[in-house]
Design a protein that fits this description.
Shape: globular
Number of helices: 10
Radius of gyration: 17 Å
Largest sheet: 8 strands, mixed
Strand content: 15-25%
Distance between the termini: 45 Å
CATH topology: Rossmann fold
Helix content: 25-40%
Order of helices and strands: HEEEHEHHHEHEHHEHEH
CATH class: Alpha Beta
Structural class: alpha/beta
Number of domains: 1
Number of strands: 8
Length: 294
């Protein structure tokens, strides 16, 4: 069976595969600073900020990561290793919490609103954080990759409590097996998709939450890491997104990994590609002039 019709149903139901010892929730990072970016009906949502140990204290590039888990579970600890690496390279690296179905009984539409709030909060507080607000990346894996891409591509879905004068659009995207196609797309066989994942499950029409359907000129430089054997979020969807981005004149690179399944990029994943994908992400950030060459 072609895996494409199962795309969103699986993405909602299956958490991003994690190392054998899955990251704990709530996370504890003794050497990172927790900043509350949003009070969502009494739920305090935090950003965990990893600072460079040395170097300039102003004008630094930054990245905000969103964990995977099918918009249902997961932990900000998933991207702790990535944050530590990029902080050591001179960036302010942040791993974000957001509401998910298992803990807060929310739908993906709410996850998108939280992600936009997180990026807005970092940009609004850039001076205090020592960040250049024009060099702010978003990243994530699986459902978290969808959220990162959504902050750039999707119109609307803003929390009305946010300061809407502050842009939630990042200046670069680092996407790891992201869910980018959530509705039928020309050239992809998604027959049966609309009836298998109803709008009420998502909280909005699938097309409105699908980054691929909102590609346009001016979206930020993007790099995608995707296992070619991924049956949860098929590789073909990442390839389709790349083609749309490039046709619109945007920079978009896709790194495919033969034989690799979903979640192959995670730290500690047996036979995975954590070090390889992280090195490629590092090179991408070097190419933007955000961190120095090694």
């Amino acid at each position: 069976m072609n895996p494409l019709p199962r795309l969103l149903l699986l993405a909602l139901a299956v958490a991003t595969p994690l190392p054998a010892a899955a990251p704990a929730y709530p996370p504890r990072f003794p050497d990172a600073r927790a900043e509350v970016y949003k009070d969502a009906g009494g739920v305090a949502l935090s950003l965990h900020v990893f600072e460079p140990a040395a170097g300039p204290r102003t004008g630094r590039a930054a990245v905000v990561f969103f964990f995977g888990g099918g918009w249902t579970n997961g932990s900000p600890a998933q991207f702790e290793p990535h944050c530590r690496h990029l902080a050591a390279r001179g960036m302010v690296a942040i791993t974000a919490d957001y509401r998910v179905a298992s803990r807060h009984s929310v739908k993906p539409v709410t996850c998108v609103a939280d992600a936009k709030s997180a990026v807005r909060w970092v940009r609004a507080n850039a001076t205090r954080l020592g960040i250049d607000p024009r060099r702010l990346a978003a990243g994530g894996g699986s459902a978290g990759g969808h959220l990162a891409a959504s902050t750039a591509a999707l119109p609307g879905f803003d929390d009305p409590a946010d300061d809407l004068r502050v842009s939630p659009t990042p200046d670069a995207l680092l996407l790891f097996n992201p869910a980018l196609v959530l509705a039928e797309l020309p050239g992809l066989d998604l027959s049966g998709f609309g009836t298998r994942v109803p709008e009420e499950r998502l909280g909005a029409a699938p097309r409105s939450l699908s980054p691929a359907h909102h590609v346009r000129a001016g979206l930020p430089p993007t790099i995608i890491f995707h296992g070619e054997a991924d049956t949860t979020v098929p590789y073909a969807t990442a390839a389709a997104f790349m083609r749309l981005m490039q046709a619109a004149g945007n920079r978009c690179e896709l790194r495919g990994y033969p034989g690799q399944p979903h979640g192959f990029f995670n730290h500690g994943r047996a036979e995975g590609k954590y070090a390889e994908t992280l090195a490629a992400a590092d090179d991408f950030l070097v190419s933007l002039g955000w961190i120095p060459r090694r």
